[in-house]
Amino acid sequence: MITDAQVDFIEKEILKGEVKSKELRDDLLDHMCCLVEIEIKKGLSFEQAYQKAFLQTSPNGYGEIQNETLFLLNYNKIMNMKRLTYISGFIFSASFTLGMLFKLLHWPGATSMLYMGIFGLAFVFVPMLLVNRYKELIHSALSERMKWILGLLSLLLFVAATFFKFNHLMGANILLIFSFLFFGFGFLPFLFFRMYKESMDKL
């Protein structure tokens, strides 16, 4: 049997792991105590038994278990959000593509499709995509975050420029120039830098 002091030690370690759910903390504590007791019976010291139990249960920290638990509990919601994100991306991209085709061929409905595609991509698809990738982006490299920030900024400027252009408002050309500058000299360099880094990491 492990002592009360050892149980307290395990509990404090779980608390350090920032496991927010009390039920999950209690379950983890019971599980870890059982594993530690089994290893102590095999002749290991408490410290050795705890380390072995920890590596078996959560080698990347207790927070990993919480994240996996939350994912499993919210699996359907997460998958529906992902489906909605990529379906909306396809619909708005198709709308923009058809709008451009109709515009070049001077067919009716071109402007409406272009508006739907551009505004949908900028204010529906991209925000939803960023929400889906929020946790990944927080812990990602600065170059990855800059790629997304500059890409979003260039898209928003392009949307504003398109709106101004279609409505013959002043400043459309300036917005268009800045959108292409942010895209060409902001987003693209970071995009290709990340592609280069990922290809080097695979070597």
Derived structural class? mainly alpha
Strands, total number: 0
Largest sheet: none
Order of helices and strands: HHHHHHHHH
The mean pLDDT is 83
Number of helices: 9
In short:
The protein has helices spanning 4-16, 22-41, 46-57, 62-73, 75-104, 110-132, 134-138, 142-166, 172-201. By secondary structure, it is mostly helical. It has 2 domains: 4-71; 75-201, no CATH class.
Description:
It is elongated and about 80 Å long. It has helices at residues 4-16, 22-41, 46-57, 62-73, 75-104, 110-132, 134-138, 142-166, 172-201. By secondary structure, the protein is mainly α. It starts with a helix and ends with a helix. The protein folds into 2 domains: 4-71; 75-201, no CATH class.
List the helices and strands and how they pair.
Blueprint lengths: L3 H13 L5 H20 L4 H12 L4 H12 L1 H30 L5 H23 L1 H5 L3 H25 L5 H30 L2
Features:
203 residues; mainly alpha; 2 domains; 0% strand; elongated
